[in-house]
Amino acid sequence: MSSRLLLVSWAMTWEKSAVYALTPTITSIFQANNISGVLTTVLSILQTALQPMYSKLSDMTGRAEAYTISIVFFIVSFIIMACAQNYNTLIGGQVIYAFGFSGTLVLGPILIGDMTDIVNRSMFLALYNFPTIINLFAASAAAQKFLETNWRWGYAHVCIVMLVTSAPLIFGLWRIQRKAKQTDLLKESHALSKSTHQRTFAGKVLWLCIEIDLVGSILLAAGLFLILLPLVLANNWGGWGSSTTIGTLCAGGGTWILFAVWEKRFASKPIIPLTNWESRNPVWGVLVVFLIAVINNMMDFQYFLTYLQVTRRLTSQNATYLERGFNVTYVCLPLVIGYTMKRTRRWRPYVWIGASFAVLGPGLMIPARSSHSHDAFIVISQVIFGAATAFINYPILVGIQASVPPKDIAIVIALYEVGTSVAASIGTTIAGSVWNSVLPALFEKHVPGNYQYAKIVQSISFALALPKDQYQGVVLAYDDAMRLLGIIAVFIGALSFLASVPLKGFLLVDSKANESDSQENVQDGKTLDEEISVNEGIVISHVFEMPNKKSVSTVNTRI
């Protein structure tokens, strides 16, 4: 089963790498390169609301059902994008993509949590992400070929790749789930209990809305939309003083207050049950990851390729290669980190190392991201920040899972993914704000003569075809914008270091070490209904109430 999961991981990273390289050119074709940040923000907000829902859905119905739904959305979205004749259709496909990607993204770590004990989990998470290394350069080369021939196949081929690679995993999950039910080893969960089946259709819909906290999810997404979109679109709405901008921001603040009240007072099944956890590690850990992800999305995922292609006259493929120093480090280093965590049984020191790099990396990006710097300087700064992310993400993901009861592992993974999704929204919003609000003034400062600002920022090819003096002015403007982002990134990196200080360390303990304790607690009351498939090596963790079971993954020893 683990090999099938790796196959899906490879397909997902292939898609992300290929589409990442395709996006600047395709948005330029649709004359929409300057507003692509809006779409990225919208998608990140949708993923924020969808990931907890998928997590709960997988607990209620089963991993197989949730994975199947997400893969169907994934494939349909790329069919729509491949057929898009305008940017609006492309946006529609991307919205459906959010429904598919959110499920596949959150369910992978959940399955790994089902399959592994806490000591080995970091190694397995690193292995799950390792197929990325295959795609870092091959996918960029393939994307360049698609751009040179027919860019639509850049989207269309993803449908085939996802269908072929996900089929073995989905069939395996369904087979194990069906076999467990036939042998009466997988008891019917609370979510699909007999009383639920006897409800009316309206009753089932109401029950589902309560279980996934639909109201809370809508308020969460609405608040993010109303707060973040004005930061990107303020100039288009008449500036920060316009009634539209002010009204939207005020509505966003009101929505956040409603969300907090709903989750605290009224939600029967809140999106994130923070009050049920004694440890504050999930809160501080997710905050650290959140801040690192803000830097990553702000500095790399939005306009960095456009910046490189314009200021250094690079092809999409070569620009992607310069950026890949981050990815190579982030993929390879966790294997070493996972092994040393297994040997030392510690996780918090790695977070502190990563938080230190989170200040150093963005600090080096400020001089590195200049049109006059050497390409190697860019790569070095990317590698250092990649190390920061590697030292932080995997140890924190393992640490927060070990800090909560086993029945809440899927929920805490969803919290982790929600944190990164919100960070993506905020990171791309900051980048979009600088690009759309600050860049016009920088053009006025540096670009001589009459120029067409909209066409320059919408199309890379138009910017490259400018007269030499105007082109040099555009390069200086882009340099200043990137320098401003770098300064913001250093400040956020410092905040991430401060947020890592309150984390409480403990030894990671193999679940077998506390086997007798676990058995004793099983006899005391209800426990996690697990079915282990020996042939496949996977644990189907499917229910649910563990009031008396202690976490078998931590001890109270402070490190």
TrEMBL record:
GO terms for cellular component: plasma membrane. Its main location: membrane. The keyword Transmembrane applies. GO terms for molecular function: transmembrane transporter activity. Keywords: Membrane, Transmembrane, Transmembrane helix. SUPFAM superfamilies: MFS general substrate transporter (SSF103473). The chain crosses the membrane at residues 66-88, 94-112, 124-143, 155-174, 205-233, 239-262, 283-305, 325-341, 350-370, 376-397, 409-435, 484-503. It is a multi-pass membrane protein. It is found in: Membrane. PROSITE patterns: MFS (PS50850). The keyword Membrane applies. Residues 1-504 form the Major facilitator superfamily (MFS) profile domain. PANTHER family: MAJOR FACILITATOR SUPERFAMILY, SIDEROPHORE IRON TRANSPORTER 2. This is Major facilitator superfamily (MFS) profile domain-containing protein. It comes from Mucor lusitanicus CBS 277.49.
